[in-house]
Amino acid sequence: MADYTAERTITAVLKEEEQIDNIVRRLIDRGVPQDHISVMGQNFQSQTRITGFISKKDVVLGGLRTGAVFGSLFGSLLSLFTGIGVLFIPFIGSVVAAGPITSVLLGAATGAIAGGAGASLASALATLGMPKEKAAVYETRVKAGEYLLMAEVPANKSGEYQLLIEGAGGEEIHINDSTLPRPCPGRCEGAEDLSPEIRSHLSDAAQQEFIASYNAAFDETNNETQAEHKAWATIKDKYDEDENGIWSKSKVAS
């Protein structure tokens, strides 16, 4: 939807998957593009076998950057999304995420959960501008088996969408005056198109590798989340992190 301008992010907790399904469909019917809606939870009912869970060892060694598994053959709700990440988050376990939030959880938009040792979902959400106490509530409730919904909406309609979410069972609602970070606005034409958070994790050479891999995948899929996953996989394959957490040390071919 070319004329849709998202300026704020509404976050809410839902107790049941059916509530999430209802809200997502109603938001889409009210004009919110599905690529501006994110969901997260541990207990989505999948119609297919989920494989490729990232291990705790992988989290400690390399964050969540390559922990995504993509597909569209999940249950009725997740079939609405083109990118689904299955991630291991420290102190919570495996979480299914779909939508722009997957980019944040992959570690590309924040360094807060890259190391894994003292990281948490709350620390990742706090980097998005949420109050720490609200982020902690969201982590606790996701860990308890409930669901997180995030909708990026125009500022002048945030009240309308908040009422919709509340009326359908949304709790602990919080509104951020910003949207979720994206790796690039479509194709990456150069390093200046990368988000500052991504640039800060890559050397100049790694930035160029990231951009080339991202664009190749984006041209093939037209999906930013899948393209980002491919780009981080390329970086992890070709580089190691230095002591400052920057992917700068070229791997020696064996």
Can you give a write-up of this model?
A six-stranded antiparallel β-sheet has the order 3-4-2-5-1-6, sandwiched between helices. A two-stranded antiparallel sheet has the order 7-8. The chain folds into two domains: 181 residues, no CATH class; 73 residues, Rna Polymerase Sigma Factor, Chain: A. With 254 residues, it is α+β, with helices and mostly antiparallel strands. About 15% of the residues have low confidence. The chain is globular, with a radius of gyration of 17 Å. β3 and β4 form a beta hairpin. It contains nine helices and eight strands.
Descriptors for this entry?
Rna Polymerase Sigma Factor, Chain: A, two-stranded antiparallel ribbon, 254 residues, 9 helices, six-stranded antiparallel beta sheet, globular, 17% strand, 35% helix, alpha+beta
